[in-house]
Amino acid sequence: MTVLTRGRLFAVSLHLRQGDARQAEAIMLRRDEDGFIVTYDPERASLDTAAVLARVLLSSEGVTVFEVILEGHDPDLTALYRAASKLLLDVEITSGPRITEPTVKVRSQEPTQATYFIPEGWELSDALDRLPAAFAGARPEVARHLKRIERAKRTSDGTMDRALDVVARLVLETDDPNGVYDEVLQLLHQIHTEQTTAAPTTSVA
């Protein structure tokens, strides 16, 4: 398995803004510098739907979204969406009777596709606080590896943060921590070998 694809290494941010009925389509997606912007008409499409469809469309084109940022929305909702997106979770606020507390549900055939369900009317700041535990309950092995990566970041004094963030994303997306570590180590070994081979030699007269 090859996990170090360009799409995964160069993930993008996704910004969501409210539009109105004057826009041509209910959901409009466009590129903006290093990320993408979604403008949606709330009368024709919900925020949840706009975020999910945009991520699915980008994924089908080999683009990985590493964070979802809401613009002009409630601050608690914005914080919740951003935190959930960093765990590759969609967010759905539901009035369904089977969801009585914030819960992460994973598709049995595709563990990397999961949704954080929140009962309608639930305090969003509390849902944000419950997110780590809900995620760990749904994807326990991945959650353990993410904790290890966070510990490694704390001990590296910030020098490895970006690289470790990429490793965390790869673990989340592939659901194969050991495969990720093996491929990253192989890449580092290859780089070291190439640098050693290319190093100039000195001769003593």
pLDDT averaged over residues: 85
Beta fraction of the residues?
15-25%
Overall geometry comes to globular
Radius of gyration: 20 Å
Tally of individual helices: 7
Task: Give the topology string: H per helix, E per strand.
Answer: HEEEHEHEEEHHHH
For the termini, the CA-CA separation is: 49 Å
Structural class: alpha/beta
Provide the low-confidence segments as ranges: none
Strand order of the largest sheet: 2-3-1-4
- As a percent range, the share of helical residues equals 40-55%
Largest sheet: 4 strands, mixed
Number of strands: 7
Walkthrough of the structure:
The structure is a single chain. By secondary structure, the protein is of the alpha/beta class. It is 47% helix and 22% strand. It has seven helices and seven strands. The strands form two sheets. A four-stranded mixed β-sheet has the order 2-3-1-4. Strands 5-7-6 form a three-stranded mixed β-sheet. A hairpin with a 2-residue loop joins strand 2 and strand 3. Helix 3 packs parallel to helix 4. The longest helix is centred in the C-terminal third of the chain and has 22 residues. The chain is globular. The termini are far apart. The mean pLDDT is 85.
